[in-house]
Amino acid sequence: MSYAMRSLVEDDNRYLKSFRLFLECSSEHQCMQDFIHVILPDILASIGEGKANLNVMGVGSGAGEVDLEMFSELRLKHLAVTVDNQVVEPSAQQLHLYKVLVSQKPNLDYIKFTWNKMTATEFEKDWREKNYTKKMDFIHMIQMLYYVKDPCATVSFYQSLLDKKGKLLIILVSDESGWGKHWKTFKTQLCNTESSHSVTTGDIKTYLDSKTVSYQSYELPSQIDITECFTEGDQRGELLLDFLTEVFNFSGTAPAGLKARALELLRHPDCSKEVEGRVIFNNTLGVLVVDPLQ
Fold first, then answer.
1. Of 90, 101, 174, 228, which has the most beta carbons under 10 Å away?
2. Do 121 and 144 contact (CB within 8 A), yes or no?
3. Pairing between strand 272-275 and 223-225?
4. The model's pTM
5. Binding residues
6. Which residues contact 81 (CB under 8 A, 6 or more apart)?
7. Closest by CA position to 36, among listed 75, 2, 4, 63
């Protein structure tokens, strides 16, 4: 029996549980690490113009692991600076984990953390209402533009906050990934909600190009082992399938025909490859480094 489907992001606990499983099954963390420690340092070296204090903002920072990795590289490029760091994150659970992580890490005295428990859209509204004029040297939006109503408008606002040597870092799934093909096929059936959108770096590039905005682009190869999704009743597989479809309890609530078509596409060569009997989904990420408005 199928029931009405609802978005996974409406259940914070289920979402975080499925997200942690996704990270466990994927190489996303490693490809992010490679980018942060190999490519990002030169980008960070270009910001600030010798200022003694840098303004940094993380939009959708989660539990902070990636933020602190980036700060370790920022410190190497700007040894004597202090940092004002605005953390924008709507999940109380994630913010708590971030604060715990900061309390356990040594040598972070040079960073002043300001905690904003709000969505990117709420933060934008608050910023506009208070007429802030502060400019940012570095803003990062990692895997979060799926969860705003208008991703392009959100990019435009946060780009407008950049100082003249600032950078806006955006990481999303690539339009060449399995996600891009999966979303194009099932967009209206799985992702057509107010709280979740099927946006890829290809969509953001199209927008930036239309505005003649300057940016740099990178691809980060990544993959996910989704083999367990094809075993009926497998708890890990069903949890991972929730994350892939962004539907709460997809196996139990999706109509049989939709479920069959979704599973068929997930293992199709357009989305995945088979390696030694395992189904490996293409999770390639795209990175955009956006320059300030001219």
1. 174
2. no
3. unpaired
4. 0.89
5. 28, 283
6. 48, 51, 52, 53, 54, 110
7. 75
